Amino acid sequence: MASKTTGNIDVNPTKDNFYLGKDDGVSVAINNRNTFGLEFKIRVEKYNAITKKWDISKALEMSEGGMQAKEKITDTYLFHYFFKSGVGTYRLYMEFYQFGTAKPMKVGYLTTSSFYIKK
Fold first, then answer.
1. Contact call for residues 23 and 115 (beta carbons, < 8 A)
2. How confident is the model at residue 116 (pLDDT cuts 50, 70, 90)?
3. Which residues have CB under 8 Å from 94's CB, separation 6+?
4. pTM of the model
């Protein structure tokens, strides 16, 4: 599990394996090192071992909360909403936008390191 960085924003799943029935969902630590607030969108991608490609499991949508300048948070994405495709290998695609600007300004985007959902 490795942290990924874009535009002074660090993103890291909190562990490699998440368990259905034991964990509430997938927890991701996000650190905004910028002097401005952020909003972000997320998309869930599941690895397809047959085609050897990442399939979209949950379409790109705005996160429910933003981040303040210099803030660190841990967001939990619930299994029953974001990971309906069940067990497997996943990653998150995330886009970050500067908060409070008249026209949303994209700060950066990334995909997290892969993690596993197990029974």
1. no
2. very high
3. 11, 40, 41, 42, 43, 109, 110, 111, 112
4. 0.93
